[in-house]
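Give me the fold.
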Amino acid sequence: MITAETHAPLKMPVWALGILNVLDGLLTFFGLTFGFITEGNPLLSSLSPFSILSIKLLLSVCLFALLFTPFIFIRSRHWRYLLFSANALYSMILFLHAGWLALIVIA
């Protein structure tokens, strides 16, 4: 039996990266809006929280758009390893940010 994962090996990593990016955008938006954090990215530090959230959401939409292109069917291990590495790194950063915000809000 042929599964959807066999036909689209990059589907799950692209979905995960898009969702991680949306979550990071929301955490950043709420952290900046309520004054809990400051933006550490020098490219985004001069923008408003809403602008940063908008950029993050636009980038996530671009990632989700990849799901409807031939890219999703690439069977290259290099792309798969790159996406899994990006997801692992982004997950660690997201958990770090969520932990910092939790400590600030609780304190």
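Residues 4-106 form one domain.
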